[in-house]
Amino acid sequence: MTMRVNSFFTGVGGFDLAFQKNGFSPVFYCENNEFCRSVLKRHWPHLSNADDICTLDVNELPIAEVWTAGFPCQDLSLARTPHGRSGLRGSQSGLFFRFLELLSVHRPPVVLLENVVGLLNSHKGADFATLIMSLTELGYAVAWRVLNARYFGAPQSRPRVFICAWYGSPNMAVNALFEDGPAPVQKNERKGFVTESKCTKSGISVPQTSFCISATSGRHTGLDWARSYVTYPDSVRRLTPLECERLQGFPDNWTIPDKEYVTPIRGIETHRYRAIGNAVCIPVVEWVAKRIASLIGPSSKPNHASKQPLSEHIMLLTEEFAEPKAEVRELTPEIGPVKWKAGGCAFAGQVVHSPASPGPIEPVTSRFIDVVDRRAVHDRYFLSPNAVEGIIRRVDRMGRQLFPPLDATLRKIAARAIAVNTAEIDSKNDVDLPIIVNI
Fold first, then answer.
1. Contact at 8 Å (CB) between 385 and 183?
2. Residue 318 has pLDDT above 80, yes or no
3. Is residue 161 within 8 Å of 114, Cβ to Cβ?
4. In this predicted model, what pLDDT tens digit does every residue of 362-420 receive, in sequence order?
5. Tens digit of each residue's pLDDT (9 = 90 or more) over 172-187
6. Fewest beta carbons less than 10 Å away: which of 28, 66, 205, 234?
7. Are residues 122 and 31 part of one domain?
8. Residue 384 within any structural domain of the chain
9. Domain final residue pick, 354, 374, 402
10. In the listed set 354, 376, 400, which residue is the last one of a domain according to the structure?
11. 417: buried, middle or exposed (CB in 10 Å: 19+, 13-18, 0-12)?
12. Which pLDDT band holds residue 220 (cuts at 50, 70, 90)?
């Protein structure tokens, strides 16, 4: 059977690459960013595509068994909390409703969505309730689960909520995201951020697990205690685009654009950082895509028939991940404020949600040090003394703690800069003044 995938809000093709590795053929993408479109053209030059989901003709969409979408998260991200979040009503994340319009016409068997965890609590849970109700009203069963890249072979802590909507089948939706057995409870997750991995040859030191890379990973300001840096004995640098690609599971230099792309005067690094930070993590999507590939086919037709009441049937489906704190309730427009848990399933007006492990039954271990470029890196990636002083000032003011080797090297750089400045001042003060003789 031919398995095809259409992707929307495609970015640089993370969904497409992961599904392609699992036997699917990408047949269409929709992406409006010029740089990302150029990257996509380089990898899939003959694919049908569109640059604006709002003007896309629904009748021109090719048939595909799976639709994927990493719809914009700017209005949902926890990083926007101090400024308030617009949620699904925002100009960016609200594009989900346009995607829903297209979905209502074609109704492909499987839909896979990915977004930031902030989606679960945006507007006191109302946005997520709207999302799953919108999908169930189209006849889809909706399962969701928060998965963290660090347990799938990508050495960065990157929790994201994955939502699988399977037309007419809660069984399939649940099996796409949950295994036949409880996943282990992950303990002491902070340990990976403070445990050192070191390369004795280069002197590079990094924690075992990187913090989540973001669309602004090329900068070294902001939440410095939640950023990953590469530490040397006497210097510190930010990650290169190549290292960010590796952390996301992309092949090296995946985000180099097509040869016809006109490079801006300032270069493409900022575009690469932004595109990589906004992308899905390949190893996580591969894990889900492999499960969907094993389920899809004739059995993907509606199969929700059960002798039990629907709520009991869904609970039985979710018992592999459901804990004593599981909640069963009716999914209605009046559902009210909900603190959505990390996993669940909804279908035909019923919803069950429960705490769930962010990793598979057999987690895949990985180390940050293994993606770090050990070769000579350009000076522009290294932090200046002024940048170092700014980081230390912000960290101390907020009472935060850094990765110990990083903290020690930053303070060494700052002390050295102070000593140099002091010596320069002393040198100026020691200059002999001219002697004036009164006659």
1. no
2. no
3. yes
4. 999 999 999 999 999 999 999 999 999 999 999 999 999 999 999 999 999 999 988 87
5. 999 999 988 777 777 8
6. 234
7. yes
8. yes
9. 354
10. 354
11. middle
12. low
* String of DSSP letters for 59-123: GGPPP-SEEEE----TTT-GGGGGG---GGGSTTGGGHHHHHHHHHHH--SEEEEEEEGGGGTTT
Residue 372 pLDDT: 97
Q: How confident is the model at residue 81 (pLDDT cuts 50, 70, 90)?
A: very low
Residue-range definition of the domain harbouring residue 272:
191-279+365-429
Torsion region of 210: left, alpha or beta (phi above 0 gives left; psi -120 to 50 gives alpha):
beta
The answer to whether residue 439 is domain-embedded is no
Q: Is 438 inside any structural domain?
A: no
Sheet strands side by side (includes 230-231): 196-198, 205-207, 230-231, 236-237
Say what the pTM is: 0.89
Residue with tokens 């932090």: 383
Cβ–Cβ under 8 Å, residues 326 and 353: yes
- 3-class DSSP state of 418: helix
Nearest partner of 100 among 133, 144, 63, judged by Cα: 133
CA-wise closest residue to 372 among 208, 233, 129, 257:
208
d(CA 275, CA 9): 12
Query: Residue 152 pairs with which residues in a beta bridge?
Result: 364
**Phi, psi of 212, rounded to the nearest 5 degrees:** -60, 125
The DSSP letter of residue 210 is B
Query: For the chain, how many structural domains are there in total?
Result: 2
Write down the pLDDT at residue 298. 55
| Residue type at 262 in one-letter notation | V
Strands (E) in 321-407, as ranges, are 327-330, 343-347, 350-354
CB 76 within 8 A of CB 93: yes
Label residue 309 by pLDDT band (50, 70, 90).
low
Q: Mark whether 275 and 286 lie in a shared domain.
A: no
For range 200-225, the mean pLDDT: 81
